[in-house]
Amino acid sequence: MAKILIPTPLRQYTEKRDAVEVPGTTVGEALGSLTSAYADLRKQLYNDEGKLRSFVNVYVNDEDIRYLSKEATPLKDGDTVSIVPSIAGGSRGY
Amino acid sequence: MATDVAAPPVALTQEEIFRYSRHLIMPEVGMEGQLKLKQAKVLLVGTGGLGAPLGLYLAAAGIGKIGLVDFDIVDHTNLHRQVIHGTKDVGRKKLDSAADRMRDINPNVELVKHEVALTSDNALEIIKDYDMVVDGTDNFPTRYLVNDACVLLGKPNVYGSIFRFEGQATVFATEDGPCYRCLYPEPPPPGLVPSCAEGGVLGILPGMIGVVQATEAVKLIIGQGEPLIGRLLLYDALAMRFRELKLRRSPECPVCGPNRTITKLIDYHQFCGVPSPTAAVAPAASAPVKEGEIDPVDVKAKLDRGDDFQFIDVREPHEYQIASIPGAKLIPLGELPKRVSELDPGRDLIAHCKGGVRSQKAIDFLKTQGFTRMLNMRGGILAWSDKVDPKVPKY
Predict the structure, then answer these.
(1) Do the strands A80-85 and B41-45 form a parallel or antiparallel pair, or are they unpaired?
(2) Which of B49, B162, B356 minimises the CB distance to A94?
(3) ipTM score over 0.95, yes or no
(4) How many other CB atoms are there within 10 angstroms of residue B287's CB atom?
(5) N or C: which end of chain B has fewer CB within 10 A?
(6) Annotated catalytic, B179?
């Protein structure tokens, strides 16, 4: 099981949960389990070609998976996967 | 007696020595550090949520020259977080309000007001006179612009951003460090991530992140400690938890990598897929009614006449609690797909939200579901408050 930390902007798709425990031996599997459980999240994380969106960064513990084995990065028990989306802040727009 | 030691080019006055005494007695700052601060030139982009604590603390710290970039006006909704401005400043230029407060804190600081929106045409010219930039902006186009300009000019970019209860901070674009594009090569497409006006923000949050930025700016100037380079600090106010992620310079970075493709500033609004600032995000209440839109006054007339139509409010339940229009049925935008059966495509439908953007999204969605007889109430409940019923509070 891996623990995935859900950032604030995406909690609306995970029934407001800030962390979700999912099965998976790799990052790709864990994210697959997550987006099966929360289908609306899939569009937020993946583009139409099924690739992770470039403004969504994924970390295993404190390391960016782009510098590990990307979605094939293995997970062991106790690892924490973080999804870190780009945020701009501010208050413009409605 | 002659001495070999040249007098320092800059010295502190007696007033400054007294003012900065709690800095001067710490060896990590000392006279040397305080003189570095006095000679430093920092550009603060934005005097809003992040810019407020930044302006206050950078002025207090004795930065010699602080440039301020902003073109906005103080309004009431700023005051819960933009603590550099007060209630008496509502309606004033943020630049004037911030500069007055900073001058009061420390009259020794030279303040330069840049009353512009930072653009590809002026960014390099403005930034080149400063040692570093502190990014207190609120939108993706300006963040990419600040980043690219800093990389091109070789100026550090002290970064912070906020959303609801969560903040990020780091230092970009130092000589060997990563830049914003190493972290996020591209912005999210518009609409995928809600803005702070949709999402809200805890008023204290920019205080925390802005103070982290101010701390890093001061550390970079005095050359002490371990700067937040190559580390992304994440802060969750609800959990009261700080975390740190590793940040690397990306070999594929289009602006700071070895095979860079961006060598000059680009059109950042186009890059981010958002309209340029001249095109308002929500149609102004004074703009002419476009096809597919209806004025709140006409909606009121239809309600009063008892016309047959479905009136839906696509905001969130907590917004409905703040203000609502009698007769409008609440179906939050996110619930619309599963609640579409509650609506009848055979009857007229009018949708509203806070300002008119989400209700347009609702109409766009309902079109895909076979609805045709729909109108968007222009300007949302804000315009309703302006034109129909001022007792409906604005938020």
Answers:
(1) unpaired
(2) B356
(3) no
(4) 12
(5) N
(6) no
- Contact yes or no for B184/A54 (Cβ under 8 A): yes
Cβ <8 Å between A7 and B184: no
Of A53, A85, A93, the CB nearest to B195: A93
Q: For residues B385 and B323, is the Cβ–Cβ distance under 8 A?
A: yes
Write down the catalytic residue from B150, B196, B253, B272: B196
Contacts of B231 (CB under 8 A, 6+ apart): B170, B244, B245, B246, B247
Q: Which residues of B touch A44 (CB under 8 A)?
A: 192
Full-model pTM: 0.83
Rg (CA), chain A: 13
Say which amino acid occupies B187.
P
Interface of A with B in 38-77 (CB under 8 A): 44, 53-55, 57, 59, 62-64, 66-67
The secondary structure of residue B232, as a DSSP letter, is E
Question: Which residues from B are below 8 Å from A55, CB to CB?
Answer: 184-188
Other beta carbons within 10 Å of A35: 18
CA distance A77 to B32: 50
One-letter amino acid of B335: E
Residues B334-356 pLDDT 10s: 889 999 999 999 999 999 999 99
